[in-house]
Amino acid sequence: xxxxxxxxSQSWTVKNDQxxxxxFLNSLDPRVRFVSCVLFAFLISAMHDLGALTLALSIGVGLxxxxxxxxxxxxxxxxxxxxxxxxxxxxxxxxxxxxxxxxLWGWDASREGLxxxxxxxxxxxxxxFSLMGxxxxxxxxxxxxxxxxxxxxxxxxxxxxxxxxxxxxFYKEYKTMRMxxxxxxxxxxxxxxxxxxxxxxxxxxxxxxxxxxxxIMEAMKCRGFDGRFHILNDMKTNQRDLGFGIAVFITMIGLxxxxxx
Length: 261
What we know:
It contains ten helices and two strands; from the N terminus they run H-H-H-H-H-E-E-H-H-H-H-H.
């Protein structure tokens, strides 16, 4: 059962090959990092002043830089998220009523729409960078056990841990089936045959996933699994965690002051 769920990672311990900032973040209690990230995200989502949001974005970028995240991997994640926001940013100035700033091809762009577009972009990126900075270097199994210690419903924790554990397994299964389709001469096109083949692929993935989940449950029951996770690490907080929590609280107060003043 320990192999199925993954052992509690010790990624928050200080390692010799880490920078001081990364080692400091890893040494913090995962629960403190998660709660701080959630509170920070809620605060950003409730803010409207562009100056305060710009300051929040700079804080999020600073956390990401402190975490020493891989540059290209981080940028790809940012681009994926921003690609969904770009459409909203391009349409808001022309769909939101207000004072006209400029006209493009007969469409009036409002000042209020531009302001709201900038607000949405700053909020999304500030939350994204803060998430990557505080939780991006945390192992998924550690996050799952931190959620369990925070009294999150056990079924949700089980679902999260199993999803993290087996999503890569099912992806490899998908790649194997795609390779088998290519070996049989399948080339995707915009026709009925391609749609039917993709439907068969999705159906087989669902069937194999169901069969594998049944086998996994039987194997876990044979090893004495009774629906509970026995967590050995207590994740106790210390003065460093308390100091980080106070720093986060002061930062949030500062953002509120900038927001309202």
